[in-house]
User: Fold these one by one.
Assistant:
Number 1:
Amino acid sequence: MDAVSTLQHRPYRGRLAPSPTGLLHLGHACTFWTVYQRALAQHGTLVFRNEDLDPQRSKDSYATSMMEDLRWLGVSWQEGPDVGGPFAPYEQSGRREFYLETWRNLRDRGFIYPCSCSRKDLATSATAPNEADDEPLYSGRCRPRIGEAADYDSPTGVNWRFLVPDGETISFDDVRQGKQAFVAGQDFGDFVVWRRDDVPAYQLAVVADDAAMQITEVVRGADLLKSTARQLLLVRALGLPIPAYYHCDLVRDQAGARLAKRHDALSLRTLRDQGHTPSDVLKVCAC
Ligand SMILES: [Zn+2]
């Protein structure tokens, strides 16, 4: 499958889509600055979407801090939880109907099946995976249950997985990273689209929202390249237009480790409190 953007001639719409599960750190700052610059350069519209789907990990106070920190950095947006807009709500926690509709669509088209396997539950997150906690390859044990999907009126109570086309190479041209290719069934397996605790999974929510909000270019960190392959399968299954993808280089610390939210010392809050200016922060990004 070759992903050719069908949205190239539409007015540019980008998105800032952080999860309010911690303070923004230097790595986020670099990525979101790039998101902002891409939208500015194309005289486009920027959407702020609060990806607060995971009730266990999301906090309103973090959402407020994220917006404050981004404003401090100099990033602004035209649509979002704080300013409204034509595609409200801009908090994922308020968009359940969109996700249910997407789930029904996938069920009706025969792409998903219920899975009652238990051991991988903890490995499945509603927030963006990173290199360290990428979803493990699923064995496919519940694949034969694809015929049962039609019996379900709601996704509640079991995990739902997307049946990937084993052996198919999913390729796309990333605006920043160049040609990418991942093999379904090898690089990633049948991924979860709805969790048994009744939370839509990251992949489903992002695809549903990007389409509903008419996003033309997805700009995010390179840790999500493999997720893009999964999302392209969802986009195709749902017959949605394909956005362009731009994956930023990851910012690493001096030891070469990827900066994560848990590095509190490098949160924008801390840097700010230490007297650093936005231009000090952006100097580190080289983006
Ligand atoms: Zn299973």
Number 2:
Amino acid sequence: MAPRCWRWWHWSTWRRTRPPLPGSTPTSGGSDEVRDPANAKVLRKKRRRGQLGVKLGKLHLLALLLEQPPQICVVGSGPAGFYTAQHLLKHHPQAHVDIYEKQLVPFGLVRFGVAPDHPEVKNVINTFTQTARSARCAFRGNVVVGRDVAVPELRAAYHAVVLSYGAEDHRALEIPGEELPGVFSARAFVGWYNGLPENRELAPDLSCDTAVILGQGNVALDVARILLTPPEHLEKTDITEAALGVLRQSRVKTVWIVGRRGPLQVAFTIKELREMIQLPGTRPILDPADFLGLQDRIKDVPRPRKRLTELLLRTATEKPGTEDAARQAPASRAWGLRFFRSPQQVLPSPDGRRAAGIRLAVTRLEGVGEAARAVPTGDTEDLPCGLVLSSVGYKSRPIDPSVPFDPKLGVIPNMEGRVVDVPGLYCSGWVKRGPTGVIATTMTDSFLTGQMLLQDLKAGLLPPGPRPGYAAIEALLSSRGVQPVSFSDWEKLDAEEVSRGKGAGKPREKLLDPQEMLGLLGR
Ligand SMILES: Cc1cc2nc3c(=O)[nH]c(=O)nc-3n(C[C@H](O)[C@H](O)[C@H](O)COP(=O)(O)OP(=O)(O)OC[C@H]3O[C@@H](n4cnc5c(N)ncnc54)[C@H](O)[C@@H]3O)c2cc1C
Ligand SMILES: NC(=O)c1ccc[n+]([C@@H]2O[C@H](COP(=O)([O-])OP(=O)(O)OC[C@H]3O[C@@H](n4cnc5c(N)ncnc54)[C@H](OP(=O)(O)O)[C@@H]3O)[C@@H](O)[C@H]2O)c1
């Protein structure tokens, strides 16, 4: 595909070398030839070159007229989808990008994952909005790829397809009792307080005294923080009013965050731990015995891990400072970290109707550092609780039988974003590299996928000739009764949410019901 400067060069060359149009005044030629016959040969040569230029110019003009901008489709409008689109639009001045999204609203986990009390993280939405408003980009919401339209149909309509559909499932614990009422995946719990339509009916029962969170990653800390934060501190966030109502009635006093490995292997990061330590109305419970000998072992670990472990160690073994002590003394709620415990069974209540506790296998580590493995010692411990939240990671699903999928790793097999053995198919974000990494990590990997796609385009590895893009898909969707929504539709819903939040001093009150949303759009 000719970049803009090439097109300009050809166009201006053609204009300079074209013959005069019929009836126009020649700017050179005849009269000079008569005045200076010595120049005649040179001028004749010039004219012949001019005629050649005309032919080349005409050909090029024809090529330009025939040339279609590359039509690219991205599946998923989370950070991966938007950052991939941003890269493509920025580095290819003609590329057109359609972003397909199953929800009626854009932004993936930035809207439905990032905690409501972390509004600064959601500022990336401003950049995504700029991308979506580009004349060469279109948001096609309310389209479930793999159900409403198949990947081969997209591949036939576009020059390239990028799969950026994230990790929508949770990893199951695969232990007895997991299906009991009172057991939730952190994914569903997060979706509930963040207004994910499919989780709006979750209504977790928070009438118990103790909750157990399985897993020690940042999602586990998000969930613990939301459970323990005084509800009045959440009132000015974009948490849903329904979730806030349930949290106001919560009787949960203690939250245990359980890891199968030790303090040196926790998956959360220091900023999030600090937030927990400083959480108003709560105090930490850490067992100093878990930290014995750790001071010596952290000398050689990488700096971020060292600082994180030092903070854990100080919190576990030192008396809190005056400020922390003053905050913790009257605390009615507590959170604790339990290490070397692997979930073995959710224990039912005597009537068998709901979860009443969790049986944990006591573990020890085999190996050292990040790679150490938890192996059961044979001992177990029962921890009574009325709520179990499983936060052991997210998981991608296969999207379409035509797309290769590695069920063990839960990713689409790829080489730097190029889907293995499927030319013209790419992937980015969590479905490319697995369900870990923050938004910045996702940005870097999405830019890389965009770069690979553009390299392939330049090398002529993508299908030649025009592609119909959305025109073909629109016809298919319409024949299947699917009603896509546009970015300006989202902007109407956005304005409605902002206006509904205003009365309560919230940035927005999220719309939860897709039918209501469609109604607001006049569908
Ligand atoms: C609970 C939670 C909190 C987090 N908090 C932070 C944080 O505070 N800071 C931070 O930097 N990172 C945070 N992260 C990490 C961050 O959210 C991820 O790095 C990032 O969202 C991954 O981007 P993605 O686009 O791959 O996936 P997603 O954000 O999940 O986007 C995928 C999109 O694809 C859509 N989709 C799925 N299937 C289909 C389909 N079949 N057809 C069409 N569309 C489809 C989904 O609806 C979604 O919109 C958090 C993650 C979680 C789980
Ligand atoms: N504020 C933020 O920046 C923020 C907020 C939320 C999420 N995120 C990011 O989003 C990504 C996903 O977070 P996440 O917390 O879902 O995943 P994660 O960071 O991978 O943590 C998963 C946790 O579950 C444990 N686990 C996994 N399988 C288990 C099993 N079978 N039994 C017991 N424990 C098990 C892991 O322990 P092992 O280590 O032993 O496997 C780990 O402690 C992370 O990169 C995270 O940083 C960031």
Number 3:
Amino acid sequence: MKRADIVVIGGGIVGSAIAYFLARSGRAGKIAVVEPDPSYAFAATPAANGGIRQLFSLPENIEMARFGLDFFADFHREMAVDGQPADIGFRRRGYLFLSDDGDHATMEANHRLQAAMGARVDLLDRAALKARLPSLNVEDVALAVHSPDDAWINPHAALMGFRDKARALGVAYVQDRVVDWRKDGGLARDVALASGSALAAETFVLAAGAWSAEIGRMIGLELPVEPMCRESHFFVTRSEIEPLPFLKAETHLAFGPEGQGYAGGLPDWDQPPGFHLEPQPTRFEELVWPKLAHRVPALDSLKLQRSWVGHYARNSFDLNVILGPWQGGAENVFMACGYSGHGIMHAPASGRAIAELILEGGYRSLDLGAFGYGRIAQGRPYRERGIV
Ligand SMILES: Cc1cc2nc3c(=O)[nH]c(=O)nc-3n(C[C@H](O)[C@H](O)[C@H](O)COP(=O)(O)OP(=O)(O)OC[C@H]3O[C@@H](n4cnc5c(N)ncnc54)[C@H](O)[C@@H]3O)c2cc1C
């Protein structure tokens, strides 16, 4: 049996950010990340939009996103390896939330909190929105919030940046799959791997995205995390449209500029939870395109170039991350899963948080105790009320 001090299960952006923050402390000992697929073909990270925004209703989510913004803005320098910058295509082009389904009171309340916490957020009525973004059809929009400092990145490049830097700092990536997780005397002891070997450790971190519940179950850790399919599309248009922020509406449309075109879609609420590995052939034409053309009439003319699927690790309990130790269970098990669509922007804050918990014994920079496993065990949801 091989040994490490800390084993991270799952090497997506979250597991890799955790490994990086642990390694950069220089005090974490031997760190191993178990990741079966270095191509990340089915992981959520490369399928994501990579948006980072402060438009939340919970102070912790706002603070985590703000740390993410600062961290990713400087990522190319901070994560350089051997003088090679880690370019992640950071673009500070803003976010726009639209209230087009009657919940503008929530949007106003969230805006008050975001502004009070120092975010640059503009509350726009219909006329102000039209003046700022003339391409939008605003007839059914009651209110909007624009956050010009928010940004987006290339999530696959960010994952590679964390991974490369973690390796440069001595982290071992073990290309294997956890198939069993064993405990003894109340503590987790080792994971069995698909290759037939095993890996023992003092501390374990579960960061396996949409696979976290099935891996947790191996050791008796029940998590309300399920894979939820999200289909995305990349399309181009020859129509003239002013530079758009990343747009998200209460009626679920979510898209933003990407390279020479646009990427986004509609959440697949109509699909049951589970892995759905192929895009549905008529979905874009029948459901997504009409909504795009309604919101931006110039998108009545576009060319679809690619569709793909990815999976949220959806926390069906309250749609927020489950972060920290397994309260009431093996105390050497930590988790970071259930991000439900926020895992890119919250990965840096999660990496820092888990490193503090393991190395310092508690939160030091930002208290994220409200996102602990205890709320699940006690049936006390801590719900996000913004557009998820
Ligand atoms: C369409 C879409 C758009 C999104 N847009 C955004 C956005 O704009 N902003 C944002 O912040 N977030 C967004 N997200 C969410 C974001 O992608 C995720 O929250 C984030 O990528 C989660 O990272 P992760 O490392 O937890 O999971 P993943 O990237 O899924 O990584 C989990 C890893 O665990 C590994 N694994 C699985 N089984 C095992 C096993 N048995 N043993 C060991 N390892 C295993 C997998 O191979 C995988 O690599 C979006 C997601 C989707 C699908």
Number 4:
Amino acid sequence: MRSILLNPGPVSLSEGVRRAVTQVDLCHREPEFFKLQDKVIRDLLDIYQCDPEQWAAVLIGGSGTSALEAMMASLLPRETSLLVLENGVYGERLSRIAGIHGIRHQALEAGWGAAIDLDALAVLLASGSYTHVAAVHHETTTGRLNPVDDIASLCTQHGVQLLLDTVSSFGAESIPFEQPSLQAIAATANKCLHGIPGLAMVLCRRDALKLDIEPRTLSLHLQGWAEQQARQSTPFTPAVNAVLGLAQALKELHKQGGWKARRSRYRHLAAQVAETCQDLGVEQWLPAAESSCALRSYHLPAGLGYDDLHDGLKQQGFIIYAGQGELATKLFRISTMGEIGDYDMARLVQALQMVISGSKRNDYA
Ligand SMILES: Cc1ncc(COP(=O)(O)O)c(C=O)c1O
């Protein structure tokens, strides 16, 4: 039986993407590959109608973290004073990346899953102590969607530049590219875009790429990748098959109506999971209005540990995801990214009913 992946990436692939990945053997120094690379770059910019005169899309070999590290290590000048907004694992990771690359930074911390305090952010930005803010859009730790519109407009108001981790939101949530403060976002092929792992990307303002910043890294040097990709080349061996997969995935995204249609689809699927859980007495960790379209967290049902829930659902062909750190014993996560059809969803509803209500019967026995 084919397993449906309900973890937040890698996602279940469409047949088209699965075929595209192995459709042809390509040498990465031949014109056929560079044509494909150009097309993927154009299509990435097209998702949010980013003006190619102002914005560059840069493909990076690696995972989402590679794109984050490339973005931060390459675009933050030595004199940067960075404020990192933390409310989960991935906000904390931004701080770790800053620390590793010697970037002066401080954090505005909220608890995991808590909302970012926008009033406190406004006060900190008004103090004039920061040149840049780094934030996570969809904090996948809990499914919280951070208010990047508000964050970007506060940054614009105070002349501070913004870098965003949109690893689990790019392609399915609204991103404020029109805000002058927004300098760059980092994303990956294998989440809302429905490609395969191994390929990540940074979309950044062309002006940001022109800054004279001493490289802190070789293989994640954004300017190096950007410069060579702009002249139909590549600095290192790229993730050729992942680029083939992403080209097809982007074609499918466009055909399905773009990021807004994908958001609607994800929301529809997430609501069905939430309703089923609610009927079974399983509460959501966060209100739907504060959650991303792509993933929601749920309290573990009384009397059912994560491993039993996971294994019961796995037997039915569904892979769910555990909470991280201290949340491991408290919540579970269900992502509705990827190729998930109505039939899969109907089966998931049945599987949840069987595993959760079965456990309740055992609990009462
Ligand atoms: C918001 C966010 N940022 C960063 C990452 C790290 O991505 P990767 O595991 O591909 O390096 C993830 C992974 O789930 C994520 O959800």
